[in-house]
Fold:
Amino acid sequence: MSTLGNLVWSIADQLRGVYRPHQYGGIILPFTILRRLDCLLEPTRDDVRALADRYDGGALDVQVKRKTGLTFYNTSRYDFVRLLEDPEGLRANLIDYITRFSGNIDVFERFGFAAEINRLEEKNRLYLIVARFAEVDLHPDTVPNAVMGDLYEHLIYKFAEASNEEAGEHYTPRDAIRLMVDLLFAEESEALLEPGTIRTIYDPTAGTGGMLSVAEERLLERNRHARLRLYGQEINDLSYAICKSDMIGKGQEVSNIRLGDTLADDKFYDKTFDFCMSNPPYGVDWKSSESAVKEERKKDGPNGRFGPGLPPVSDGQMLFLTHLAHKMRPAHEGGGRAGIVLNGSALFTGAAETGPSEIRRWLLENDLVDAIIALPTDMFFNTGIATYIWLLNNTKQSERRGKVQLIDASGMWTKMRKGMGSKRREIDATTRERIVKLYDAFAETEHSKILKTSEFGYWTITVERPLRLNFSTSRAAGLDNKTLAKAFGKDTDPTPFLTALASMGKQIYQSQSKFIEAVRKEFGTAELRLTPAQYRHLAIALGEHDDTAEIITDTKGNAEPDVPRRDSESVPFTYGGNNLGEAGRNETIKAYFEAEVVRHVPDAWIDTKKTKVGYEIPFTRLFYTYTPPRPLAEIDHDLEAQIAKIMGLLRKVDHL
Structure:
């Protein structure tokens, strides 16, 4: 494939001087697609032309499908050979050729191909390019579908490299896809071997179709009589065009690959699937889809695909997570499985009852999370950060129900001979088999943890401390205008009040009631009056924190909270052996509070109205292994050895 890819890309040498390197892809990619379709249609070309003389429109679609088995066709009398026979008419004939494809072939308009043909003709390069592509045999007998998919991705990589873009924006490395596919198929390994097996698979971020292609390849490797129907949606015109072209070559239904923004407009809103896969963009905002997403959430309510919650607009990856959860075939219809690659933030970002936490809560409380696998860093073309495969399943096997398996495969990789972008590591076949075996075994090991879904839940409680203040009228001189207006009234001259306060001296009061009583008496002497609320505002304004002072209370006698000393605690659902989850809320929180808070701060209390439910998956902490520091004697020995080495080098310098 690499040789073929370099051969095709070398045709771009004909574009030097006319196009800049970052523009080569806009010519090479559509010509590659056209040549592939040209080779695919070669055996049926005469039959289709004959049918086109008798039928048109929908009738022609039906007749071509019946005669050739193909869902697409071209009615032009041209192909690459005939195009070259008429150099003078090449531009017009080539445009005629690309416009006479069946209506479901819309890939060339995505490249603005007609305009590029005109430009190539104007610069006297069109014949050279067509002639070079005519020499490349892309017939399926020569270039199988799997190799063709690799060729498209090789060209995308070259195009991205020349454009200073990220190849990962268009496709996912094959080793990562193969691992995800094998994990998805693991539970159905026997069922997929049955004769006549038919399954559906869907990718809402299809890119160039790599995930769909690998899934089909892996299934056919197991069972060549199986049939996997591929569905995908892609927002990028270039990637969509390549994906659709690749699916055409595989004999898939052309209309199952659709162009559009999955978040704003689900093109398969009425379908669910046996398998779902996705590698969505992470750390990318969803502002362009925001209004549509929020409108759909409002309309569909809690049962819609965005019902569980919305993540921050700055990162939309968890929207694809809930989207896939809703695209799995319902349990009563046989169930579905999904795999999605996300970065680490999806595990823990967001406080209790915020959008991300609520999404995790919905997934875990509905027992949809089957397993999460930590991948090695440096696995993807456009990022070296830690990534994770989430496996979802709405029909778990009995031993997996109510549980989640975490697999740490971050150290399972082999180094690539030559890196590609940020990708420097890969998962080879042996490593992939090792990871799948860990999943199949469903056992506690060094690299595998089994946890109940309730172990990821917690309550956030708000811990209050009583407000304790001492008071002194000597602080009145430092009050600002806003505080004065609140204490004495917006339209009241504060001067007489401040004069009266100044006459009281610098005495410090430990009790709010005694302080207010003293001030009221002084104001009465000066014939000044305030409401009870104003006296309280004035007291707070003249108060300073003092742990030895009396507790400040409200009008009902309840202790006022000291806001700056307000704190929060996370109480695990399973604290103290609680196995009831949310049902054991009150008892568990009480036990935690008494054991972990009250013994340190006896006067604290919980503001129960502010208690919230949260979920997080502390993956790294669960696999953390404590490594004790080296003994001091060992460190001292190494330091002495280094000092001796340095001194020896210095002595050599002195002798020079």
The chain is about 40% helix and 15% strand. The first strand starts at residue 198 and ends at 203. The longest helix spans residues 632-654. The chain has a mean pLDDT of 91.
